[in-house]
Amino acid sequence: MPPVLSGRGLPRRAAAALTGLALAAGGLTAAAFAPAPATATAATATAATAVADFPVRVNQLGYLPDGPKRATVVSSATAPLAWQLRGASGAQVASGTTTVHGADRASGQSTHLVDFGAYTGTGTGFTLVVDGSVSHPFDISAALYDGLRGDSMSFFYQQRSGIGIDAALAGSAYARPAGHLGVAPNKGDTDVPCQAGVCDYRLDVHGGWYDAGDQGKYVVNGGIATWELVNSFERAHRSGNDAALGDSTLRVPERGNGVPDVLDEARWELDFLLRMQVPDGRPKAGMAFHKIHDAQWTGLPTRPELDDQQRELHQPSTAATLNLAATAAQCARVYAPYDAAFAARCLDAARRAWTAALANPNVLAPATDNTGGGAYEDSDVSDEFYWAAAELLATTGESQYRDAVTSSPHHSKPVDAFWWGGTATLGRITLATAPGVALPADDVTRLRGLLTSAADGYLSTMAGQGYAVPIPADGYVWGSNSSVANNAMVLAVAYELTGAARYRTGALETMDYLLGRNALDRSYVTGYGERASENQHHRFWAHQNDASLPHPPAGSFAGGPDAALEDPVAKAQLVGCAPAACYVDDIGSYSTNEVAINWNASLAWLAAFAAERRSAPAASCSVAYKVDNAWGNGFTATVTVQNTGTSTVSGWTLGWSFPGDQRISTAWNATATQSGASVTARDAGWNGALAPGARASFGFQATYSGANPAPARFTLNGANCA
Ligand code: 9MR
Fold it and tell me: Residue 432 sits in which domain range?
């Protein structure tokens, strides 16, 4: 076990200094992906490994009163340890003992689990004390995620290209003149040439968001980031809570224009994506240029308005074209009520992009094109075809897009994790959730089942770990934090589709990981937590290299642990790290500590979900399921349903799925029908009325083989029971 220091009362800076991770690397001129001088010293390397000063790992922001509340303790003790939850005054408010989890592969640590979910009090300054060690202080509050929702979404305003960043909106430290609006020394983005041999004309491609710590603008990555922001609005709208993302909810200049701010923000990028489409009459008309960025990697730091590099358009690609088709089709659907002309322009662009992609189905961006900007290469665009077809189908209902959806292998494959290079699941989410999609009902049901199966897979991955992360130990790749958040999005979607509490729990526990319950006792979000990242790789928020520049603003999300050690600082400081510990809060570590629009979009989506779903909806029924008698290949059971709601239920239908191969042969006091694993049991007439608090019981006899597990979830008249 690492040395234990009491962290109680330590101010944030002092806590960071303890780890040595706040040491300025000084003098870094590294450009992303370009060889950088190795600046790590023996001192920082030693300090970087000594981060386990706080063995009690909590969500440093806090917990929802009506949510899961678990912590992880690093301890090699083989017997349970006593824990105490203390309020701000230091008085104990709850206590219990840990569960020994043991070795955790991803972190390489020996772990115990604390579950203080039964405590539902609220307040600030709680600490968890285990075995003489004190956690960072945290809140328990229903408003926990409100600030993060706003900050993680306002991040995008501050990444905007082509507009001055206003001190009144962003704070004076973050104000800056517009970058890349054709004003010297900028050589872009209003009149940009192509790379040699790519085109012989120039294009105005101003606007959009800078991708990350660099100032490139990439259609591929812009696509997923835009989709996630707009989808967060679609999701909130379906649940009737879009007011939280409505007009004047974010720090954006368009506040007060009558349009939801999240859509104003996404439109900044959509307008840029539309400008990246090859104009009519030109070769490859309708396709989208893959990217625009500096001819050479820009130094770190470089303020956007002072970048003097030539900007260049890179060859159109099928992937970029399909990113445009997908997001523009989504735009046409979502913006129609606010700006019909814009929605029509989006739909026209989406259709033209789709047609151009069909005509140029395999124009790939080369992996070698990574001078001055990232390559965003992708050798398989079948998933982008599926995503674009799905968005076009959801928007238009037309058979050409339905045929493209139903004939794609991605339509029936198990749901895979999504990221900028793998976008099929974005299409699946749209088809499974958007209202009135013109697909056979069976297809939609099947897609929903595939999404919930994937969510169950993530839950089982979490259950096997000391830190409950929805990625496996070998999943810590470049941008792992967004892999984690994207998988949590699938959990959240499964929650919307089924109402089953376990999915909400999983999505919220993922937030715990990102905000401090992890191998490094670190919050990966600037401004959120006692030990939060603040030196992310960024050319303007480069305080670590130049004290006159700011740290990243609150709500900036670090890429996270990357076991492949893909930059000089990581290579120097992280040798031998366990996968989930391969991270360093140093501006030079672009492979573990960059910010990026696609990553912040997944955090923003999840924060909006967590803020909205602060309370679990009260179930209005509960079910007791009891096997009365079993004899190897048959059993009888009694099911009792109680109306825990406040109004009478007149006529009930109970639904469940058998986890095994159980098959009902007869039932009494109810009529049971079974199709595959799913069972529907209808009241027998005389027992159909259930007053509040009343119960009804029925029984059945069934066959089975092997195990005979109980169903996990019941529904009463379609709604979930507790
Ligand atoms: O997010 C990208 C990651 O999946 C790749 O492995 C990595 C290397 O190609 O590039 C990441 O994207 C970067 C992009 O190429 C340039 N802007 C910064 C992005 C985040 O690091």
Answer: 159-410+419-438
